[in-house]
Amino acid sequence: MVEQTIKARRIPDYLYPRRGSAVMFKNRFLESLTKTHPLTPLIVYLPVVIYFIAYSSYKLNFKTLAIFVLFLTGAFSWTLAEYLLHRFVFHFEPKTPIGLKIQFMIHGVHHQYPRDPKRLVMPPVVSLTLAVLFWYLFRYSLGIYAFAFFPGFVAGYIAYDMTHYAIHHFKPPKNKLRTLWKHHLKHHYQAPDRSFGVSTPLWDYIFRTI
């Protein structure tokens, strides 16, 4: 088992894995916002993907090839955003007690309790905020092309969340996808300062954090 692997380097206490589930808020409502059913990303964001593709085709009259290329570019761009967010936002190094609390709320809770099934996909309150920010970023930088680019980006996010849940919830498959399991579990149980990619290890190879 990966959990039993002798660690290559010391894991900080606030990232050290353990069993069980954390209570993040005493308030029941706030606590409920930190827990998410694994199908939530599909339910919330698949209609968004369909709407933007339909809008690009029927309202903006984009050619099928143009939509396809922009969609794939958006999905590929998500993998870079995923890597950068995970490495520099989720894994910022806290220097103060307040920083530790913030880091725990953002991502430390997942590292401490990596098998908590209700905290394996991003809560909608967080993902929707990020989605709105990214949408306006793409809308103002890409113009109308954002309508075909954004659904690809969102589809990449859906694939990321589903992959992340599968890695923590199911046994590694006996095919090439097994590499994703090894890569991400290495991040949790051996080297939390490396292997930041979840849906692909590509950017870890490029930025030498493999």
Automatic annotation (TrEMBL):
Origin: domain of life: Bacteria
Gene Ontology terms: biological process: fatty acid biosynthetic process
Gene Ontology cellular-component terms listed: membrane
GO molecular function: fatty acid 2-hydroxylase activity; iron ion binding
Needed co-factor(s): Zn(2+)
Subcellular location: Endoplasmic reticulum membrane
One Pfam family named in its UniProt record: FA_hydroxylase
Membrane topology value: Multi-pass membrane protein
Record field: transmembrane: 39-58, 64-85, 120-138, 144-167
InterPro entries cross-referenced by the UniProt entry: Fatty_acid_hydroxylase, Scs7
Domain (Fatty acid hydroxylase): residue spans on this chain: 72-209
Major localisation: endoplasmic reticulum
Keyword annotations of the record: Endoplasmic reticulum, Fatty acid biosynthesis, Fatty acid metabolism, Lipid biosynthesis, Lipid metabolism, Membrane, Metal-binding, Oxidoreductase, Transmembrane, Transmembrane helix, Zinc
Protein name in UniProt: Fatty acid hydroxylase domain-containing protein
Taxonomic lineage of the native organism: Bacteria, Pseudomonadati, Candidatus Kryptoniota, Candidatus Thermokryptus
